[in-house]
Amino acid sequence: MYRASLSVLAACGVLASLPAQAADNDLKALREEIAQMRQAYEQRINALEARLIKAESTADSAQTVARQAAVQQTSVQQALAAQQPMLQQAAAPTQSNSFNPEMSMILQGSYNNLKQDPNAYQITGFVPTLGEVSPGARGFSLGESELVLSANIDPNWRGTAILALAPEGGVDLENAYFESLGLGNGFSFKGGRFFSGIGYMNEQHSHAWDFADAPLAYKAFLGNQLGDDGVQVRWLAPTDLFLEFGAEAGRGRTFPGADNNKNGVSQGAVFAHLGGDAGISNAWRVGLSWLGSSPKERSFDDVDSTGNPVTNRFSGKSRMWVADGIWKWSPDGNRTVNNFKLQGEYFKRREDGALASSACGVCAADYNSDQSGWYVQGVYQFMPHWRLGLRHDALKSGTVNIGLVNNGMLSANDFPQLAAHNPKRNTAMLDYSPSEFTRFRLQFARDDSGIGATDNQLFLQYIFSLGAHGAHSF
Amino acid sequence: MKRLVFALFSLLSLAAHADLKVFATVPEWGALAREIGGKHADVFTATGGLQDPHRVEARPSLIARARNADLVVATGAELEVGWLPVILRNSGNPRVQPGQPGNFEAAHAVRMLEVPTRLDRADGDVHAGGNPHIQTDPRNILKVGEALTARMAQLDAANAVEYQANFNGFTGRWKAAMTKWEASAAPLRGMHVVTQHKAFPYLYDWLGIIEVAALEPKPGVEPAVSYLSQVMNNVATQKPRMVIRAAWNSPQPTEWFSEHAHIPAVVLPFTVGGSGQARDLFSLFDDTLAQLLRASK
Question: What is the value of ipTM here, to two decimals?
Answer without folding.
Answer: 0.87
